[in-house]
């Protein structure tokens, strides 16, 4: 059964963390969700990892600050740099020893890159593999929403202006009635040719739980990040990158530049798929995840420690 924990950060933000698997597993896989989503995004991966690897792999998901069941935060901390620091804190608290596989979707992948950039020593000591799903290391460089560049510039201007307004709305959540009305737009933006109605309901529910401050506040940082140089230093790690060829937010050039910077990356382009690959193409994502996990399990731990040495984490059980 999953265990629900709470990690309290130095600025008193509380992260809701879900852990499945034993403390002494050989590898801890930490799955990071995208902007405006939450840890439930990975529901089609959790059971598959458990079935394939059993007690050898411990799986951790958590809701980023301002998202899901985690608490809201000061606007100045709505940055990818802060999310990288938050990931460092989660690793230290929940998986203090043993090998770690980092799996990031969209903003979650950018968070992994920021962790590597801001905490290179800690990252190198623990990280044994990487999986990037529908993400980018180049901000909004390649984001044209599947439209002409001129129209894309207008949409980006409207989006960034609106984000600035939302960022000042504090911890309020989007009205559910509004989100129901926006479902066709959400479906167009995030999904490709096929969309299970349950998935659009889950995504809408996740957005409904994100604070307006986080929906608006993270936009500027996401658009500005550039971390290809950081990835280029990680070429020794087994890695995978996946993207849908109908992804309007992080189109194939985003994944291609990640693979070019990180030559160990196995690149998968999913025909007809959009931005939500974990839901749209779970078989492909699960296969890539399993392939990297198998490589991680065969390698010695980066810090030379054994998973069984793991001490008890200093976290509280959520109520």
Walkthrough of the structure:
This protein has 319 residues and is an alpha/beta fold. The chain is built from 14 helices and 9 strands. Helix 12 (252-261) links the parallel strand 7 and strand 8. It is globular, with a radius of gyration of 18 Å. The model is unreliable at 304-315 (pLDDT under 50).
In summary, what is this structure?
Residues 300-309 have a biased composition (Basic and acidic residues). With 319 residues, the protein is α/β, with parallel strands linked by helices.
Percent of residues in β-strands = 15-25%
- The N- and C-terminal alpha carbons lie at a distance of 15 Å
Give the strand line-up of the largest sheet.
8-7-6-5-3-4-2-1-9
What is the N-to-C succession of helices and strands? EEEHEHEHHEHHHHHHHEHEHHE
Radius of gyration: 18 Å
Draw up the topology in text.
Blueprint lengths: L2 E6 L5 E7 L6 E6 L10 H11 L3 E6 L17 H15 L4 E7 L1 H12 L1 H7 E7 L15 H19 L8 H6 L1 H8 L6 H13 L2 H6 L1 H6 L3 H5 L6 E6 L7 H10 L3 E6 L6 H4 L1 H17 L17 E2 L2
Parallel strand pairs: 3-4, 3-5, 5-6, 6-7, 7-8
Antiparallel strand pairs: 1-2, 1-9, 2-4
Helix pairs in contact: 1-14, 2-3, 3-4
Comma- or semicolon-separated keywords:
Rossmann fold, nine-stranded mixed β-sheet, 319 residues, alpha/beta, 14 helices
């Amino acid at each position: 059964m999953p265990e629900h924990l709470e990690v309290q950060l130095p600025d008193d933000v509380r992260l809701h963390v879900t852990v499945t698997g034993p403390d002494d597993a050989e590898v801890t896989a930490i799955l990071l969700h995208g902007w405006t989503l939450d840890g439930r995004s990975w529901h089609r991966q959790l059971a598959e990892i458990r079935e394939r690897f059993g007690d050898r792999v411990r799986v951790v998901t958590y809701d980023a600050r301002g998202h899901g069941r985690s608490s809201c935060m000061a606007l100045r901390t709505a940055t990818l740099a802060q999310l990288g620091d938050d990931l460092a804190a989660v690793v230290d608290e929940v998986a203090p020893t043993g090998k770690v596989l980092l799996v990031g979707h969209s903003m979650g992948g950018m968070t992994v890159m920021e962790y590597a950039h801001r905490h290179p020593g800690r990252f190198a000591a623990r990280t044994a593999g990487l999986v990037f799903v529908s993400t980018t290391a180049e901000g909004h460089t390649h984001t044209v929403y599947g439209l002409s560049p001129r129209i894309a510039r207008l949409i980006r201007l409207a989006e960034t202006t609106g984000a600035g307004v939302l960022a000042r709305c504090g911890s309020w959540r989007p009205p559910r009635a509004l989100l129901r009305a926006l479902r066709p737009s959400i479906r167009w933006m995030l999904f490709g040719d096929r969309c299970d109605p349950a998935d659009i309901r889950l995504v809408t529910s996740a957005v409904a739980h994100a604070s307006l401050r986080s929906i608006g506040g993270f936009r500027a940082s996401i658009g500005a990040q550039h971390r290809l140089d950081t990835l280029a230093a990680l070429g020794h790690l087994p890695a995978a990158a996946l993207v849908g060829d109908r992804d309007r937010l992080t189109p194939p050039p985003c994944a291609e530049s990640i693979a070019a910077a990180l030559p160990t990356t196995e690149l998968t382009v999913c025909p007809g798929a959009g931005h939500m690959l974990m839901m749209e193409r779970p078989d492909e994502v699960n296969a890539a995840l399993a392939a990297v996990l198998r490589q991680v399990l065969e390698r010695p731990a980066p810090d030379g420690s054994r998973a069984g040495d793991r001490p008890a984490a200093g976290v509280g059980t959520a109520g």
